[in-house]
Write a structure and sequence with these properties.
By secondary structure, this protein is mainly alpha-helical. It is 65% helix and 0% strand. The model has no long low-confidence stretch (mean pLDDT 77). Belongs to the ATPase protein 8 family. Its main location: mitochondrion. It is a single-pass membrane protein.
Length: 51
């Protein structure tokens, strides 16, 4: 039945978008990023302005 093809494409698109959102959120929350070491140096050099 070719008349039902747009519904099939819409369901595939919705499935892809939902899986992409789930994968992105899981990847964002489960990857542990290491803090940068340069931020500690910047905190110590805040008071060392040489004007």
């Amino acid at each position: 039945m070719p008349q039902m093809a747009p519904i099939n494409w819409l369901s595939l698109f919705i499935t892809f978008v939902i899986s992409l959102i789930i994968f992105s959120t899981l990847n964002y929350f489960f990857v542990l990023y290491q803090p940068k070491k340069s931020s500690i140096k910047m905190k110590s050099n805040i008071n060392n302005w040489s004007w």
